[in-house]
Structures are given as C-alpha cells and as structure tokens.
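Feature request, filed as a ticket because there's no other form

It would be nice if the structure record came with a short human-readable summary line next to the tokens. Right now we just get the raw output. Example of a typical job, pasted below so the devs can see what we mean:
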Amino acid sequence: MSVSISTHVLDTATGKPTAGVHVELFQGAGPVASGQTNADGRIANLADGLEPGKYSLIFHPPSPFFTRVEFEVDLVDGHHHIPLLVSPYGCASYRGS
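Raw output as currently delivered:
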C-alpha cells in the first residue's frame, strides 16, 4: 500500500492560482514533507510512498485573515489531491481527483 499527495491553492477572490504558498505535511508530531506552490499554484508531488493513515496538511496562505489553515485527513491507499480555495475572509477544500 502506498499513498501520494498533491495540492494546489486557488484565490477565489481573483480566480487565479496562488504561487509561493508554504505547505507542510505531518504525521503525528513529525514532519513528513513540505513545499511551496509553483506559479500555477500547484505542488504536483508533495509526498509519495507514504503509509496509509492520519495526516495533517498545513497551508500558510497570504491572507489578511487566515495565516494558517490545517486539515486533518485519513488517507487510504492511492493518490490524494487536496486543494485549498482561499479568499480574504473564507476558505474551503474538497477531495480532488
């Protein structure tokens, strides 16, 4: 069994991708991976070859309100795309494909 993770960040106020967002992945208290979104707002391969389990995905968006957005996810075998949609005063995510 193996888990892989990709992500992207979209500014829904402007409708444009957000470059340079620092993203961290933790399992328990230990860091597993980190990266920064590219010019298209994406990290194509944040982590690969992980064991299934519970992880924390932490985004540090350039928002006047949200300085840290954390999702706790329980990942099963396979690829997981976990995006962040952010605007100045709101954020959301979904299970992407």
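Something like this underneath would help us a lot:
DSSP finds no helices and ten strands in the chain.
The first strand starts at residue 3 and ends at 11.
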